[in-house]
Design brief:
The complex is a heterodimer. Chain A is α/β, with parallel strands linked by helices. Chain A has helices at residues 2-24, 42-52, 65-77, 92-97, 108-112, 144-149, 161-175, 188-199, 217-229, 242-250, 263-266, 305-315, 318-328, 342-345, 350-355, 368-383, 389-400, and strands spanning 27-34, 56-63, 84-88, 123-124, 127-128, 131-136, 139-143, 256-259, 273-276, 290-298, 360-361. In chain A, the strands form three sheets. In chain A, strands 1, 2, 3, 6, 10 and 11 form a six-stranded mixed sheet that branches. Helix content of chain B is 76%, strand content 0%. The chains are: A alpha/beta, B mainly alpha. Chain B: It is a multi-pass membrane protein.
């Protein structure tokens, strides 16, 4: 009898503990951050947010870049969305159209605080669907030692496509090393690389009325120029993505690459490099570059949408965001105090900051993966010699209309 | 209740857990995929019935080319695995010093986690840092770096080679077991009659391992046809779609582009082909079983 009594008492204690913990349990605000580790500043900010919002606990999951977007999307599609997630802004239109995310309330003052065009990258049907969290412009990196070895002026980077090709050819002919790093792997940055050439030749992909403008003389020149670059680039561009380019550049195996400001932190210290605005094409009416943003998106159906918006605004407010940008080598989203000293502290910032004014955005398509795949196939067909630029461009232009 | 009826009920009761398991794990997803293939399911919450539209769409595109490529990929991969596996099994059966060590050395490709093995090959195929291009340049076969995964033909060959590397150990060990089950006195009698080594292989070994060869070929055919990891990790179906097989195309459509309805239609096509292979596999197995029973 005493034995059963002890058992019952024990069971009661266990049950009461479980019930107590259930009642006392905080409501979870789940968050996915893409990458290898949580941003250095986030743990303290999240702790501060939790202290201000008792009853809520932020659970951060880190997911590698390669799987991140698919995981976030699959969770949302399966009806078990994450509350807050880091997404490429190009995905927002599809998420919004599919009723998977909530609009982000933004005051006019909040919108005006960003550089021009930034808010456009997260706006669809007149509403903002994400809070920009990472921004990049692109520039040309060149290896000064390889330029010198090839007999070129190491202080003079190319400013036009013709100069780019001639310099790349000279390096290739004189040193045997690839003059240009052309990424064309089955990755999104192959599309981005093509867009560099589009925006530096006054081209567009889609106009303000949603009309596809891909099949234009400017874009044909861009694709023809990519074809022209193949012999002076690394062997087999379709085997390399942009990350590979940074490694090859760091290893002195290519003389020039195009990339974002983070490349500055990743290039080997042994390389003498310079960075300049992207060279412009024959139709250019001025400088050009590609603007890409990533955003924090708040997913629908978690019951903590308001808290997720609040947390995202804390993480990305002007002060916290600038610290994050400086730590990660990202182009600033807002002209906050401190931006003006970036160039004087580190002149390599200049082409990236100058590019903000004249950059073109990553086009927003409803089926962005369909659009992306069509452009990757187009570039790869030209790079591998399977198609002529004109035919490839016309084919891609015909196919992307269904994705807008 | 008669004794035989009771025994039948008992047998059915024993089968019940497995039946439920198969219904939940295999039958339900199959039926669901089939019904999904007639819808426009995507990220949108509304799902509409579209009839045969998804099937018309896939056959209106380059799906025919992808089917042919899948069969070519499977043919080369399975054939090479079977040839190397058979040669390997015969060699490992030979009475040579260190035979146990050689048998052990066949296992690593099979033991190493597949993704790690594939990444290793990915590095070896790299034109700038890869071993293959480096060695071929050093011995003068190549005059410049060659990125094997950059061109349609070499990328296709590279994916086949990697699949062969991973698949050969299983084939070798399976056929080795089959060879070891051949009675030794047959070889002794042939040797006494003066039969040469190749003659003994052709007239004794090969005919007697035909059942194992057929079974292994069918198993290898089904798994190779559905092979996803190797191509996805090495090329993601590129460059320019030249290593895209049916399973890669299905993944890109359903998971990569969130077109679940269209992806399901592609998955149904794979299912039909694999079902045909399975039909032939069971016919072979049944014939062999009937032969053994005689």
């Amino acid at each position: 009898m005493r034995y059963y009594g002890t058992l019952l008492a024990g069971a009661a204690v266990v049950l009461s503990t479980m019930a107590g913990s259930a009642f006392a349990e905080d409501k979870a605000v789940s968050m996915i951050q893409c990458g290898d580790a949580i941003a250095e500043t986030y743990p303290d900010l999240i702790k501060a947010w939790e202290a201000k919002n008792p009853g809520f606990k932020v659970n951060v999951e880190i997911v590698g870049w390669a799987q991140c977007q698919d995981k976030i999307t699959t969770l949302a599609a399966a009806g078990t969305p994450v509350a807050l997630a880091y997404v490429g802004s190009r995905t927002l239109k599809q998420f919004a159209d599919s009723d998977l995310i909530v609009p982000i309330p933004m005051t006019d003052a909040e919108k005006a605080a960003y550089y021009p065009h930034i808010v456009d990258t997260v706006t669809f049907k007149g509403e903002a669907w994400g809070i920009p969290v990472a921004f990049s412009t692109k520039a040309l990196f060149w290896n000064k030692a390889l330029f010198e070895k090839a007999g070129l002026d190491p202080a003079k980077p190319p400013t036009t496509w013709d100069e780019l090709y001639n310099d790349a050819k000279t390096v290739k002919d004189k040193t045997g090393i690839a003059g240009y790093g052309l990424p064309a792997k089955t990755m999104d940055n192959t599309m981005h690389q093509f867009l560099h050439f589009v925006y530096t030749n006054d081209g567009t992909v889609i106009d303000a009325d949603g009309k596809i403008t891909l099949d234009s003389p400017q874009n044909l020149q861009a694709l023809e120029f990519i074809k022209k670059l193949v012999p002076v680039s690394e062997d087999g561009p379709s085997a390399y993505d942009q990350d590979d380019m940074i490694k090859l550049f760091s290893d002195g195996k290519v003389a020039m690459i195009e990339g974002g400001p983070w490349v500055r932190n990743q290039v080997s210290k042994d390389i003498q490099w310079g960075v300049a605005p992207l060279p412009v094409g024959p139709q250019a009416k001025g400088a050009g570059t590609l603007l890409i943003t990533d955003s924090m998106a708040v997913f629908k159906g978690t019951g903590v949408e308001d808290q997720a918006v609040d947390l995202a605004k804390l993480l990305t407010n002007p002060e916290n965001q600038f610290v994050y940008e400086k730590t990660h080598g990202l182009t600033p989203l807002r002209p906050v105090a401190g931006v003006e000293t970036l160039v004087s502290e580190d002149p390599s910032w200049k082409p990236f900051l100058d590019g903000i004014a004249f950059g073109g955005p990553e086009p927003l398509f409803l089926d962005y993966k369909g659009f992306q795949n069509a452009l990757i196939d187009m570039v790869q067909s030209v790079v591998t010699g399977n198609a002529e630029p004109a035919a490839a461009l016309t084919k891609a232009a015909g196919s992307i209309d269904q994705y807008k | 209740m008669t004794r035989s009826r009771s025994a039948t009920l008992f047998a059915l009761a024993l089968l019940l857990p497995a039946t439920i398991y198969i219904l939940v794990i295999v039958a339900y997803p199959l039926v669901d995929t089939f019904s999904l293939s007639f819808t426009d399911a995507s990220l949108r919450k509304t799902v509409n019935w579209v009839g045969w539209a998804n099937y018309q769409k896939i056959f209106g595109g380059d799906f025919g080319t992808i089917i042919v490529r899948t069969f070519v990929w499977t043919f080369f991969s399975v054939s090479i695995k079977m040839i190397i596996g058979t040669c390997g099994a015969v060699l490992l059966n030979a009475l040579v010093p260190g035979r146990a060590l050689f048998r052990m050395l066949t296992l690593p490709p099979w033991i190493i986690p597949m993704a790690i093995g594939i990444f290793m090959w990915g590095w070896m195929y790299n034109g700038q840092f890869g071993m293959i291009s480096g060695v071929l340049q050093n011995i003068g076969v190549l005059d410049r770096p060659l990125a094997w995964l950059a061109y349609g033909n070499t990328a296709f060959a590279a994916t086949v080679l990697t699949d062969v590397w991973i698949g050969v150990p299983l084939v070798t060990l399976y056929l080795l077991a089959a060879i070891q089950s051949i009675p030794k006195d047959l070889y002794e009698a042939a040797w006494t009659d003066g039969a040469e080594r190749f003659y003994r292989f052709r007239r004794i070994t090969l005919p007697l391992i035909v059942p194992a060869l057929l079974t292994m070929s069918m198993i290898s055919l089904i798994s190779t046809f559905n092979s996803f990891d190797i191509i996805w990790i090495l090329t993601q179906g590129g460059p320019n779609g030249q290593t895209t097989t049916m399973i890669i195309d299905t993944y890109r459509t359903a998971i990569g582009s969130y077109k679940y309805g269209e992806g399901a239609a592609r998955a149904v096509m794979i299912c039909i082909f694999v079902s045909i292979f399975c039909f032939f596999y069971f016919r072979v197995v049944n014939k062999l079983s009937a032969g053994e029973a005689k």
